[in-house]
Design goal:
nucleotide-binding; 11 strands; globular; Glutamyl-tRNA(Gln) amidotransferase subunit A, mitochondrial; binds glutamine; mitochondrion; alpha/beta; ligase; Amidase signature (AS) enzymes; 17 helices
Amino acid sequence: KKCLDRIKKTRHLNAYITVTEELALRQAQQAEARLLKGVPKGPLDGIPFAVKDNFCTENVRTTCASRMLIDYTPPYNATVVQKLLDQGAVLVGKTNMDEFAMGSGSVDGLFGPVRNPWSYAAPYRERTGASPDSDWVISGGSSGGSAAAVASLTSYLALGSDTGGSTRNPGALCGVVALKPTYGLVSRHGLIPLVNSMDVPGIVTRTVSDAAMVLGILQGRDLRDSTTVPTPSPFTELPEDFDVRNIRVGIPKEYHAPGLTAETRAHWSRVADWFERAGARVEQVSLPHTQHSIVCYHVLCCAEVASNMARFDGLEYGHRSRTDSSTDAMYASSRHEGFNDVVRRRILCGNYFLLKKNYQHYFVKAQKVRRLIADDFRRVFAAGVDVLLTPTTLGDAARYHDFTQEDNRARSAQEDVFTQSANMAGLPAVCVPTALSRRGLPIGLQLIGPAFRDRELLGVARCME
Ligand code: GLN
C-alpha cells in the first residue's frame, strides 16, 4: 500500500505506464496470509516489483511505449516475470521507456518522458538553484521508468532490458544498482526483442546484495529460450569473506573517450585509487577495437530491428490503419502510424544494410568487428584481470531541454560508448552509484567481468557501495 501510495505521489515522474493496483493488492493480501502462517513462497514473498513495459505480463497491457502495441494484452508472462511471481513478489506496475527500447534518455516513448527523481531532491535544487518544473533532468534510458521507480522508492526492484546499456545508463543517472547479466544466463522469453543477439533482462535494485538475490532467482535454463544455459553456480547470497586484495582491476585506456566530463573522469580515478589503496592490483589495459564499437552496434542493431519489426504488420500484431485500398497500403500506413520516427529510421537503415549489394560491406563486416571486440575482452581476462572498472555514462544527467535539442540527438548514440561493448561480447556488467556530482546528481561507475562470472562481479561491486 505504501508503494502504491508513493506511485500516486510521484505521478509527475511519469515512471509508470500502467499501475496494477488491484492485482497488486490481491497478490499482497495472499502474500500477507502466507507470511502470517509462516509459510512464505520464497525470499521475495510480498515484495513489490515493477517491470519495464516490454516484458509480457499476463492480462496486463504491454505497450513497448508504442502506438503499435497500445492495445496489446499478452496471454502469458515473460519467464522472468513468472519467476518473480512464483516467489510471491507483487507486481505494482509496468514502467515507462523509450519506444521499443530504442534510446538512452526515456524521452522517446508514446507516453512522454520520464523525469529523474533527483531533479526534485535537495542537493540538485540547492546546488544549482534549478526549478524542477523547467530544469528537470532526464532519467536516462531506455529503462528510465524502472530506474526512476526504484530510485523514488515506489518498488524494491525492477526489471529493465539491456541491449546496449539501457539498464545501466538509467541506473547511473538515477543512482541505483543496475545489472546486465551474462547473455544466456537469464531467459529472454517474453521480452519483446530489440536485438535478439544482445538483449538481456536487466535487474535494478537499491543494493548490490539485492541484485545478487534477484539474479539467483531469475537465472537458469529455459526451454523457451534456446540461448539460455544451465546455471553455473546456484546462489542467492554473496560470499561474506570477499577480499579485494586478491583481485586485479583493469582500467581500459580507450575508455578515456571524447565527451567524458572532467568530473566523471576524476571520480573514476578516485575509485581506481581506492581499489589500489585497499590492496587490489590496478593496471591499465587496452581494448583496441573499442573505437569501432558504436558504429558496429548501430549496423547490427538496425539490421536485427529491420527483421524483428517485420512482424508488426497490422495483421498478426499491432495497430491496424484504416487505410485499406490494398494490402500493401494497409501494411505501410499501419507501420507509419504505429512507429515513431526513431523506430522507422532504424528499420530503413537496417533494410539498407541488409540489401544484397550492402550485406557483405555492412552486416558481415560489423559481425567480424564484433568478434574482434569480444576477443579484446577475452584477451584481457585470460591475462588474469578479474574486472574492468569504467565510467557508465559520459557525465551526470542532462536537463531534458538540453538533451532533446536537435543538435544533441547524436549524443544519444554517444551515450552508449561505455556500455554497449559488453552487449556485443555478451559479458556481465554492473553499474554501482558511487558519488554525487557538483550539481547534486548521481554518478555511477561500471564493472565488467568475464562471461558467467556474474557472482564474482557482484562481489567486487559490493565493495564499491
Ligand atoms: N541506446 C541504445 C539504443 O538505442 C541501447 C538501447 C538498449 O539497450 N535497449 O539502441
